[in-house]
Amino acid sequence: MKFGPVRLADAEGAILAHAVATAEGTLRKGTLIDAAVIARLAAAGVAEVVAARLGPDDLHEDAAAAELARAIAGPGVEADAPATGRSNLFARHGGLLAVDEAAIHAVNRVDPAITVATRPALRGVEAGRMVATVKIIPFAVPRTLLARAVAVAETARPVVAVEPYRALRVAVVSTLLPALKPSVVEKTLGVLAGRLAPAGARIVADRRVPHDEAAVAAALADVGGTDLVVVFGASAVVDEADVVPAALRRAGGLIEHLGMPVDPGNLLILGELGGRPVLGAPGCARSPRENGFDFVLERILAGRRVTSEDVTAMGVGGLLMDIVSRPAPRTGEALAEDPDAPKVAAVVLAAGRSTRFGPSNKLLAEVDGEPMVRHAVRAATASGVAETIVVTGHMAEAVEAALAGLPVRVVHNPDFAAGQSTSLRAGIAAVSPTSEAAVVMLGDMPRVTAATLDRVIAAYRPGAGALVVVPRHDGRRGNPVLWSRRFFRDLSALEGDTGARALLAANPEAVATVECGPEVRIDYDTPDALAGRAGPDTAPDAGVDVERR
């Protein structure tokens, strides 16, 4: 293939290497230069183009990509039509992606012009998921090079395949302790059902027993007619002699492997009973987020026998995206002064325009003889928070004057008109490194007290996975809401006046609720509400927990 600048008069039959703008629109790279194209380029004043001209032994990029994709695609995989030197391969059905990694490496070593990329091997994929892509880098490759790559693929066939899932019958044994709420068990079953659904597998037996070796062993013996048993322990397994592994052996089963080099997911048990696999699920498997449990479950659903050697080979690629509910050790500056008490900042949002209140700023309206915002801020300073940050915006000087004498740090948000999320972002950014969490307060909730805040802070237990604390009254959520530093980036990514309902919904395992008084549901958005001529507003949209009813 020849590549380089070509006089327009000599370019017919070549391939345009770079896009060129003309009065009739842009000619994209890869365009075959024919008489009509030459006329358009000439009209645009182009005298020379960068082009590629194929030789007699060259194969066009699209033809090459299509041929190699066909050689790579195995059972359960189909290749789409090529374009710009690329052919994508998709799963025909749900299943486990099987990849001959040595063959992929060998194809990629034939020549830098020929490339193949795949998704991680031995992971589940759904129907229609792209599982691999073939890309020819230049506009053409020598036929001899492509023949070498195709020969490698055909020798190793199948290189990329999707092993179909099986509709397994699954038994679940859940152990119970007084501290484990029934709702947690129900949610866990729902999460597992969601994991099984792509395979058409289903839960056919649900056994709930005390967290006791004999009780678990009896339950394991009572789940005949199933293909897989999953045990969710109410307490984490810490030793082979612990309740769940001991119960499995007592029931006549064996432990294939305890623990796995995937995080989260370390505390998984792989066992066997009566010819059926038994999985002791790690605590993180109660969450729908990816964890080591998925690595093993997907293989079993595809009919593969998982061995101890398989599990120990999962370490490379086994460090997954963190799930926020995992125990969070406190480190660095947060431990500098007091290793026992977590340091929490209060961020008071006081930047809004209060448009529903009329021409005046509701935060400056008097409540019991003082400006409304001063009540909220004084509650923060009188509580156990380590620092109080007030975010101002509309009528900033007047709001700051209303807080005279209070030990606060004021941060001005010049973008307050763009929505409450901008104030939240400014407040979160101002939290000092020594504070590991922030309780976000609203300046128009004057009935929240220091005791309310202390109650919320007391429920923050990062070591137990309680990283968000939401106050509740009469079955409804309110404000203020406490957020671990793990969520600061997500909070800062919010836009406009949208709240964090989606953030709470996506991380239910990290949310703890605490019962409080009616003050967590009361704000004042109108003069009538403040004057008592109408009931106070409830469930304010703080950009932190919004459950408006």
UniProtKB/TrEMBL annotation:
<dbReference type="InterPro" id="IPR012184">
    <property type="entry name" value="Bifunc_Mopterin-bd"/>
</dbReference>
<dbReference type="InterPro" id="IPR025877">
    <property type="entry name" value="MobA-like_NTP_Trfase"/>
</dbReference>
<dbReference type="Pfam" id="PF12804">
    <property type="entry name" value="NTP_transf_3"/>
</dbReference>
<dbReference type="InterPro" id="IPR036425">
    <property type="entry name" value="MoaB/Mog-like_dom_sf"/>
</dbReference>
<keyword id="KW-0808">Transferase</keyword>
<keyword id="KW-0460">Magnesium</keyword>
<keyword id="KW-0548">Nucleotidyltransferase</keyword>
<feature type="region of interest" description="Disordered">
    <location>
        <begin position="527"/>
        <end position="549"/>
    </location>
</feature>
<dbReference type="InterPro" id="IPR001453">
    <property type="entry name" value="MoaB/Mog_dom"/>
</dbReference>
<dbReference type="GO" id="GO:0016779">
    <property type="term" value="F:nucleotidyltransferase activity"/>
</dbReference>
<dbReference type="InterPro" id="IPR029044">
    <property type="entry name" value="Nucleotide-diphossugar_trans"/>
</dbReference>
<protein>
    <submittedName>
        <fullName>Molybdopterin molybdochelatase /molybdenum cofactor cytidylyltransferase</fullName>
    </submittedName>
</protein>
<feature type="domain" description="MoaB/Mog">
    <location>
        <begin position="171"/>
        <end position="302"/>
    </location>
</feature>
